[in-house]
Every structure is written in structure tokens, then in C-alpha cells.
Amino acid sequence: MMLRNAKLLSLSAKFQPSSTEPPHNSRRTNITVGTFSEPDCKLSRRNLSKSSLLLLLSTQTTLTPLLDFSKAQADDTTISNPNPTNCGNRVPTKKAFIDVSIDGEPIGRIIIGLYGDDVPAGTARFTSIVSGKAGISYRRKEFVKIMPGYVQHGGIRSYGVDAERATAAVGTLQNLIEEWERGRRGEICNENKAGSVGIVVRDPSIPPPKTKLVARNGKLAMEEEVVAVGPNGTEFVITAVDSPELEDSVLVIGKVLEGMGVVEKIREVKTVRDNTSSPYFRVAKVIGDKRAVVAERGFNRPYSKVVVTNCGLIESPTL
Q: Ranges for the PPIase cyclophilin-type domain (predicted)?
């Protein structure tokens, strides 16, 4: 009898909770026993704002070293460029001119020096159009945008034969993009200083093409959706002040040698007000309203007709 009791005692002792670890029942009891009043479960705006501020400060403190490290890496990359491009060494190899009128009244001539040795494809394309050898010309074509820092010519945008000739002109758009990418890598100079002349090779305002799934001949295929028509390599800009924002879209091919006063007269023309800061316009752009796209094309357009009346190359032994 004593042995049975001892055995039961030993078995019951085996299932007794230890002094260092509370039983599972006691854990649940501790959680359920705690009293929570209804006001304790509510967060006031003051407490929420304090918590958000603390979270923001802690995140900023955590990310600051990473941002500093990334900035240091970028600085190291910039400094380690073994072949920095010197834009002051560029020498024009050809001369071109464009005569401009505002509402039919001539305002003067702009003489442009072209960098044929640095950007041969861009220079060849511009000279073939300005001289008329490509079968098309900038004559009777308008300046379509007047910005605070530059003026932009619309190029050849006609349909039919003119559009085909613009596409087939010397120096394809792909050649221009390749030279522009060389400028992005620092192999050639592509700084848009005051008085620079450049061809528009891409439109930064146009979003990248979207990939969509379509059915072709009973099969599913992926293709890119064309959002808008991009430049065709005939539009050009003339800067009045330093415009580094153009380096993402323009290939510099030359500079103004004479006629900056004509550029200033073009800048004085009244234009359609830029309304991109309007909240209604922003919402329309976000939801993809086509009316916003059409309205955006009209921003900064001159009310007067600013037209190239004549253009061509200047044969000169000295530049």
C-alpha cells in the first residue's frame, strides 16, 4: 500500500509545474485576467500624430546613413571618370542660317555653327534638312513652344510625303539617340549652355510604353502600347540661358554665332499659359483623360505665328 501511494506521488510530481516556468493555464489566465477598459483601446489624434512623428524620425535616422553612403558612391563615380569631356574645345565645322518672322514681319537672321566632328550624325541630319537636300526644309515651318529658357521649332510634322522624307533623312533617329547616349556617358559634350542648338531626340513628358497581352492569330503575345507620338529627329531647340533640364531629351549639335537678339524677340511673344499646376489638370492626367493630353500640347504655344521664312548653309572658308 505504501508503494502504490509512493508511485502515485511520483507520477503526480512529474506533472507538477516547475517553479521556474509557469503552467500554460496560468499564461492564459494572466492574459485573460488583465482588465482592459474601453477608453484604453481608443487612440486619440494627438497620440497617433506623436506615434507617426516618432516613426518618421526613426525611419529618417535609419535611412540617413544609407543615403549618405549612396551619395558618396555617386561622388566617387563622378570623380573617377578618367576622360572628362571639355566642352570648350569644340570647334564649329559648318555654318547654317535661319531667317525668322513674327506674324509676317521679319525680325532677323540666326547664324548657327555646327559641330560636325563631335556629332556627325546630328550635324548631317540638320544640314540635310536646313539646306533642302533631304527634299524637305524648315522653311514655312513654325516655332511651336516658347519656354522661359529656350524656344523650340516644331520640325517637319506633316503627313504624307514630307513625313516619309523626314524619316528617311540623313542620320536616322537611332543614330541621334546613340550620339545622345554617348553624351550621357560623358564621351562627348552635351551641355545645354546659353546659345546652344540641339535636336530633340526624345520627349521626357511621354511615359514609357506599357506592355500588354494581346491575341494574334489565336495566340497570346506581348506587345508595347504606344502612348504618344515621339520626336522624329527634325525638331530643334535654341537655348537663351543655361538649360540643363534639356540634357535628358536634346542632342546638342551647335551654337548660335550671331542673332541672339532674334532669339530674345521670339521669347517676348505671348504664349498660352502653362496650367500644369492646376489640381484639376493633375487629376485628369492621373486618370488618363485624353483632354488633358490635348491641353498640355497647347501650353507655352505662341499666340503669334513665329515662322522660319528662309534657311540654308553658309559657304565660308573661315568659321
A: 97-313
CB of 251 closer than 8 Å to CB of 122: yes
8 A C-beta contact, residue 119 and residue 254: no
Q: How far apart are CA 240 and CA 192, in angstroms?
A: 10
Order of strands across the sheet with 143-146?
143-146, 150-153, 236-239, 196-200, 250-258, 105-114, 94-102, 306-314
A 10 A CB-CB count for 274 gives: 14
Mean pLDDT computed over 24-42: 44
Beta bridge partners of 252: 198
Q: Are 312 and 133 in contact (CB under 8 A)?
A: no
For residue 255, the SS3 value is strand
Q: What is the pTM of this model?
A: 0.66
62: cell is: 535609419
Is there a contact between 272 and 300 (Cβ–Cβ < 8 Å)? yes
Among 249, 202, 199, 198, smallest CA distance to 229 is for 202
Number of CB atoms found within 10 A of residue 115's CB: 21
Longest dimension (CA), the chain: 129
pLDDT tens across 237-296, in order? Answer: 999 999 999 988 999 999 999 999 999 999 999 999 888 888 888 888 778 787 887 787
**Size of the chain in residues:** 319
DSSP assignments along 16-76, one per residue: SPPSSS--HHHHHHHHHHS---GGGG---HHHHHHHHHHHHHHHHHHHHHHHHHHHHHHHH
Distance CA 231, CA 198 (A): 13
Phi, psi of 232 (to 5 degrees): -110, 15
- Using alpha carbons, select from 166, 178, 204 the residue that is nearest to residue 119: 178
Beta carbons within 10 angstroms of residue 260's beta carbon: 14
Residues in a beta bridge with 108:
100
Cell of 44: 486619440
Instruction: Answer for the pair 67, 73: CB distance below 8 angstroms, yes or no.
Output: no
Residue 306: is its pLDDT beyond 80? yes
